[in-house]
User: Which sequence fits this backbone?
């Protein structure tokens, strides 16, 4: 669902004639309303508590706001196809960082699968290149957008089913920050219609609201390697939607991209141990851990806040104080 909703974003964004950060502010406000409505359905003891930590503002609000702002900046400064290709290096970085934090180290299969997916995706994205001069600022902004996505995804992964993310406050914080950036850096919208506001709200309900929440849900329960590769389906499905709408013909680059993404998934998943069935004995050593264990680890530049992410992960079973005292005696 997450990938499909993200893939629909370009179609909805093309129907909005508003400044980028104003669109983001409206969309995130709508996403906050959706999160509030879903929270009402939860039992009182299952509702998320307010997160007042620095990580909430730096990795959550800051990461998502940075991803939106830097990506729009890159699109304004250079060739959209080229900066999008730079931005889509973030799944590779996310998979490598997640593997490192989970104690798996550097997996050759992850690198090979990501390389296959990225290589297949490059012709599809560059096929729409407008041959516009792209200065270093545009590439830097695209890279910053990708790094921001990594930080935001790591923040979502630090949650747990027993401690759900407070999406209401998260989306509200991003909406307020995006509105401030619009007022400071963008010209006012000269002409805005009800359709513009409706389309921006639909972006907040789907590609920004529900998609971000399902992305966080998947990060806490699924393999980060597989999820990282699935994100490469976003531009593939976006191009497929354009073909279905009759706005562009079916191209060979689209078929190559689809094939490459599925091959990369087979490469990375073939080396992982198969799931254990209920009647089989458990063997924890053979199962890859996809959580972030609370083991001291030096910060990895430029993501110095990763040490904070590790501290927020649920720690392993602790020895009770009484038992510890008896053992010490």
Assistant:
């Amino acid at each position: 669902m997450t990938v499909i909703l993200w893939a629909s974003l370009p179609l909805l964004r093309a129907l909005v004639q508003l400044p980028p950060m104003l669109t983001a502010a409206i969309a995130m406000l709508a996403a906050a309303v959706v999160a509030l409505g879903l929270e009402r359905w939860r039992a009182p003891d299952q509702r998320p508590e307010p997160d007042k930590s620095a990580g909430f503002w730096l990795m959550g609000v800051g990461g998502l706001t940075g991803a939106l702002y830097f990506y729009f900046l890159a699109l304004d400064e250079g060739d959209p196809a080229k900066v999008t290709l730079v931005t889509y290096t973030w799944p590779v970085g996310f998979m490598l960082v997640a593997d490192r934090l989970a104690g798996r180290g550097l997996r050759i299969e992850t690198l090979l699968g990501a390389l296959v997916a990225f290589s297949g995706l490059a012709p599809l994205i560059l096929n729409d290149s407008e041959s516009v001069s792209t200065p270093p600022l545009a590439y830097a902004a695209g890279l910053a957008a990708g790094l921001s996505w990594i930080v935001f995804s790591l923040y979502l992964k630090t949650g747990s089913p027993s401690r759900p993310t407070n999406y209401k406050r998260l989306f509200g914080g991003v909406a307020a920050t995006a509105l401030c950036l619009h007022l400071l850096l963008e010209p006012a919208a000269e002409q805005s219609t009800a359709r513009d506001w409706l389309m921006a709200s639909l972006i907040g309900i789907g590609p920004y609201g529900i998609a971000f929440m399902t992305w966080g849900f998947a990060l806490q329960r699924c393999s980060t390697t597989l999820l990282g590769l699935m994100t490469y389906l976003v531009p593939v499905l976006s191009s497929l939607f354009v073909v279905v709408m009759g706005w562009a013909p079916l191209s060979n680059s689209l078929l190559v991209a689809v094939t490459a993404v599925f091959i990369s998934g087979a490469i990375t998943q073939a080396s992982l141990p198969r799931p254990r069935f209920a009647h089989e004995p458990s063997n924890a050593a053979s199962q890859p851990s996809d959580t972030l264990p609370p083991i001291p680890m030096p910060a990895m530049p430029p993501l110095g806040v990763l040490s904070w992410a590790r501290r927020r992960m649920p720690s392993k079973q602790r020895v009770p104080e009484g038992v510890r005292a008896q053992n010490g005696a």
